[in-house]
Write a structure and sequence with these properties.
Blueprint (H helix, E strand, L loop, with lengths): L11 E4 L5 H12 L3 E6 L3 H13 L4 E5 L5 H15 L2 E6 L17 H10 L1 H11 L3 E11 L1 H5 L7 H21 L5 E7 L12 H15 L8 H12 L10 E4 L12 H4 L2
Parallel strand pairs: 1-2, 1-4, 2-3, 4-5, 5-6, 6-7
Helix pairs in contact: 1-2, 1-9, 3-5, 4-5, 5-7
């Protein structure tokens, strides 16, 4: 990619949970736009190194950095290590999900341990990350949190309760951070991804995967497909460009229009 098509050239980014799925897609797209990217991973070092290799093959710069974002100490050390290695920090993407399947439970049966696990890897990790990243970020930096609209705004996906409630907290935090950092030109936004292939969805039992993806393809997503990590990466990289400097404190839904469909009206009435 030539320099005129690299709007993020000279920028340095940290993406948590970037060894696979949506985080991987975000890291690759930021690198394609010219940013040097730190690939955070928790356990899968091989996957993280593969993302680094792909970026380097494309002529980009990347490093892999291990940390468990659910640990406040490790999260803080991660930010400082990336800043020390790169010498600067411009973009912080809070994407790491944690072990979602281990704390999926309906609201009346979720345990305190499950709730605490969701809290530690979502709003607490984001709080620690921003508090340590913001003082190190250059003017005009970007902070982006990844969320999920049906989980944070609706209530029917009952097993998603702990994650959804904590994702809603994270979205609210973005608005407060946006005001706090606006004076330095640092924007803070949330990207709500829709159901995305090659993501946590692929860790569900096969019948559940097929049902969810088939539902979208049948028309409940107007584009008749699930999202891809590249789709979410495109949304993130767009917010990181200079042209998005006037957008802050917003929750932007990147779901191909799925959230526009009305569950009370038969699908054939909604199709063009």
């Amino acid at each position: 990619m030539t320099l005129q098509h690299q709007p993020l050239a000279g920028k340095f980014a940290l993406v948590t949970g970037a060894s696979r799925g949506i985080g991987r897609g975000i890291a690759l797209r930021l690198a394609d736009r010219g940013a040097a990217v730190a690939i955070n991973y928790h356990k899968n070092e091989n996957a993280a190194n593969e993302v680094v290799r792909l970026i380097q093959e494309r002529g980009g710069k990347a490093i892999a950095v291990q940390a468990d974002v659910a640990s406040s100490e490790e999260m803080a050390n991660l930010v400082h290590q990336v800043h020390s290695t790169f010498g600067a920090l411009d973009i912080f993407v809070n994407n790491a999900l944690g072990d979602l399947l281990s704390f999926m439970a309906p609201p009346l049966s979720v345990t305190l341990d499950q709730w605490d696990a969701a809290f530690q890897c979502q709003p607490r990790a984001f709080l620690v990350g921003v508090q340590h990243a913001a003082p190190l970020m250059r003017e005009g930096g970007r902070v982006i949190a990844i969320s999920y609209w049906p989980g944070s705004h609706l209530g029917g996906f009952s097993s998603y309760f702990a994650m959804g409630a904590n994702k809603a907290s994270l979205e609210s935090m973005c608005r407060y951070f946006a005001v706090s950092l606006a004076g330095r030109g640092i924007t803070v936004n949330t990207i709500c991804a829709g159901i995305t292939d090659d993501s946590i969805v692929n860790q569900l039992p096969q019948p559940a995967q097929e049902a969810m993806l088939g539902w979208l393809k049948s028309g409940w997503n107007p584009m008749c497909r699930p999202g891809t990590p590249a789709d979410i990466g495109g949304a993130v990289s767009t917010l990181c460009a200079d042209d998005a400097a006037w957008i802050t404190g917003q929750t932007i839904v990147a779901d191909g229009g799925a959230s526009l469909m009305c569950p009370e009206i038969p699908l054939f009435f909604q199709k063009p």
